[in-house]
Design brief:
By secondary structure, this protein is of the alpha/beta class. It folds into three domains: 194 residues, P-loop containing nucleotide triphosphate hydrolases (Rossmann fold), CATH 3.40.50; 67 residues, Orthogonal Bundle (Helicase, Ruva Protein, domain 3), CATH 1.10.8; 97 residues, Zinc Finger, Delta Prime, domain 3, CATH 1.20.272. Helix content is 58%, strand content 7%. Strands 2-3-4-1-5 form a five-stranded parallel beta sheet. The chain is globular and about 60 Å long.
Length: 365
């Protein structure tokens, strides 16, 4: 038991910064906004002191991570942090052994002679086999955020660990792209869909309540602009509101939000520049822009893909006639092909450049 307690403490994460996104993060399941059906099902499991393995899917900022931590708090009370481990898979995939070497949770498993995947698998197996600490539940939680980033071989290994560790661990996977999670894992999980918050008006209600709580005056124009840029992502919306409210007592209007976006949404601005460069066939500048995003800003290939898609959609909507919509459809096909290749690629630059070249050819420039 002493060994288990020691190892579980090693596995726990660090401290959180009290930004507005953390200050207003739901602490209980009842506080999760806009996901009533999901919460209802989870509360039934909590009442029985058990849950199945879960696959939570939906767009970014809809409450997936908040629900997992609210669930942990209701299951384990004050000992929740000792009985849940978060694995941010995008960090592991992008940094591999460097990430494992620098994270204190993995220091007992790190071996320079082993591959990153082997170290990762060993660590997961060890944690999943440990019993929970100071908890009435017989299992603890292993939470994989952005699970679709995991390579197929790592996901296949997880399938076997899930089967062997059913008595001591429950696995929770969250993703914006459920197709990126192999069927063998999806079939072993209860699949729960998180709906976009902006479609139901939940995002507006949330932002208004935070603004009122913080004494911030938010105009209707400011709220509309914030909603447009957030794209249903509650975390992004709260961060924008906090940034806009900093160092001013004036009402937060459209112009104020626009200033925040120009300063903070660097990758969105760069994606728009990449689209313009693509249409001008300035390939060297395109490559330089991609290198800034990937190497300097450490933005993942698929995150860049999403921003490029949104930038392209805005450009087509603003500049193209209705009869030219078929061109946009063809360009989206190139995006789909590149996105598929990015799933198992260690070098996103190759596939993003290929996509951009094909796009410019199709435009006949």
């Amino acid at each position: 038991m002493l060994k288990e307690k020691f190892l579980l403490k090693v596995f726990t994460g660090g401290k959180k910064v009290e930004m507005w996104t953390e200050k207003y993060r739901p602490k209980r399941l009842d506080e999760i906004a806009g996901q009533d059906q999901v919460v209802k099902r989870i509360k039934c499991f909590v009442k029985e002191k058990t849950i199945p393995n879960l696959l939570l899917w939906g767009q970014k900022g809809t409450g997936k991570t908040s629900l997992v931590y609210a669930l942990a708090k209701e299951l384990y009370g004050e000992f929740y942090d000792e009985n849940i481990m978060l694995i941010e898979t995008s960090d592991f995939i992008e940094r591999r052994k460097k990430w494992l070497r620098e994270d204190k949770r993995f220091k007992f498993f790190y071996d320079e002679q082993k591959s990153a995947i082997d170290i990762f698998k060993e660590m997961i197996r060890e944690y999943a086999a440990l019993s929970p600490i100071n908890a009435s539940s017989k299992f603890k939680l292993l939470f994989f955020s952005n699970a679709d980033f995991l390579p197929v071989n790592a996901q296949q290994a997880l399938r076997r660990v899930i089967e062997r560790s059913n008595k001591t661990c429950r696995f929770i996977f969250s993703t914006t792209r459920p197709a990126g999670v192999i069927p063998a894992i999806r079939s072993r999980c209860l699949n729960l869909h998180f709906t976009p918050l902006d479609k139901s008006g939940t995002l507006d209600t949330l932002i208004r309540s935070i603004a009122e709580e913080e004494g911030v005056k938010l105009t209707e124009g400011g709220l509309k602009t914030l909603r447009e840029y957030a794209r249903g992502d509650a975390g992004a919306a709260i961060n924008m509101l906090e940034a806009a409210a900093t160092a001013t007592t004036e009402p937060i209007n459209r112009n104020r939000i626009e200033v925040v976006v120009r300063d903070a949404f660097f990758q969105r601005k760069k994606a728009e520049e990449l689209i313009d460069l693509t249409f001008d066939r300035r390939y060297k500048d395109v490559r330089a822009g991609l290198e800034i995003l990937i190497k300097d800003e450490r933005i993942g290939g698929r995150e860049i893909m999403l921003e490029i898609h949104e930038a392209l959609r805005r450009k087509m909507k603003a500049e193209m006639a209705t009869e030219e919509s078929k061109i946009f459809a063809r360009l989206v096909l190139y995006e789909g092909e590149a996105d598929f290749k990015l799933c198992n690629s260690l070098n996103p630059m190759i596939h993003l450049e290929e996509m951009i070249i094909e796009m410019s050819k199709d435009m006949g420039l």
